Amino acid sequence: MKAFLKYIGFLSITFLILASLMSFISLYSLRTSSLYKPSFIVNSVSENNFDYIILGSSVGLTTLNTKLIDSITRMNGINFSEDDTGLSSQYLMLQHTLYEGKKMKYCILAPGLAALRNKDANIGGNDYRFVMHVNRDYIGNYYKEAAPNSFEARILYTTKYLPFVGVSYYNTELFFPSIRVLFDKKKRNRFDDKGNYTYPQKKANLKEKPLDTVKVTFDHTYLKKIEALCKKNDIELIYYFSPEYQKFVSYEKPENLHVINHSNIFQDELSLFYDPLHVNSKGREKATLHFIKDFEQFYLSDSGN
Question: Are 263 and 241 in contact (CB under 8 A)?
């Protein structure tokens, strides 16, 4: 029996050592790649000065095309939005961007309508994309603060000390992609060299319906944190409501926060939507042109033109 227990102990220790080694290599591979936005910022964004950045969820990622904005306005911007994220994730991304020495005059915040209405959300579905940088204090603390209310956050925070915990739990999102990027460090996960992505050009399978008016407030804990961080770094914050099918966002004008409300600029225009929340490629072009018109008002007034 004693020999058997020793054998089991040896196998367990060997397994833990091998799992830890493979997980360390996996996280290192992702950390030195450009697959996900956090590592893309570290390894592939050599510029440090931008006129603007876009932070947001999938609506920020797929609605505003920085290449089109820059070609018309002659500004220089980049899109750091990540799908399946909320205001807490955007706060973390802004911290990450500033930590990397990036400076910007404007921060366009486009997290989607649901982000403001979900007061309890404190971690995004794709926040595992930061875990390869978990040894940075602001990322480790982000997971730690969310851990009491989130099993995923506990997993991600534990990865700081036991790498195989996070890599095994998120094996589809971390382990297998890390093997792929070993052979192509520049590979990106559904975004171009300026951080943009678009849904295919197709007409959404939507039914006609009357316009729905939704009233929101801006009293969100992480929005206040984003505002404070922007103020500290002399960044002008602009909140952007992207187009949604037959939905109009109503609100009282917030103090010290600029808002561009394009929630209902495409009333009844089914051909511009991929689904109720997202525009397709044709809708993205039109939405971007609308955005440029309003955004230039801020830029030109600040430039004294």
Answer: yes
Q: Which candidate, 190, 194, 204, 220, places its Cα nearest to that of 271?
A: 204
- Could you give the CA distance from residue 59 to residue 260 in angstroms, rounded to a whole number? 14
pTM for this prediction: 0.93
> How far is residue 288's CA from residue 71's CA, in Å, rounded to a whole number?
12
Report the DSSP pairing between strands 247-250 and 273-275: unpaired
- How far apart CA 182 and CA 186 sit, in angstroms, is 10
pLDDT confidence of residue 40? 98
Residues contacting 292, CB < 8 A, separation 6+ = 68, 69, 72, 73
What SS3 state is found at 111? coil
CA distances from 206 to 217, 225, 245, 275, 276 (A): 28, 37, 9, 7, 7
Q: What is the model's pLDDT at position 270?
A: 86
H/E stretch holding 74: none
Q: pLDDT tens, 29-74? A: 999 999 999 999 999 999 999 999 999 999 999 999 999 999 999 9
272 DSSP 8-state letter: G
Cross-strand partners of 260: 240
What CA dihedral angle connects 69, 76, 47 and 64, to 10 degrees? -20
Instruction: Write out the two tokens for 232.
Output: 């500290």
DSSP three-state, residue 145: helix
Separation CA 49–CA 106 (nearest Å): 11
* Regions of the chain where pLDDT drops below 50: none
Helix H or strand E encompassing 154: helix 151-158
Distance CA 110, CA 243 (A): 11
What is residue 268's predicted lDDT score, i.e. its pLDDT? Answer: 78
Q: Can you tell me the distance from the alpha carbon of 119 to that of 298, in angstroms, rounded to the nearest whole number?
A: 29
State the CB neighbour count (10 A cutoff) for residue 24: 13
- Cα-only R_g, the chain: 21
Give pLDDT, residue 117: 84
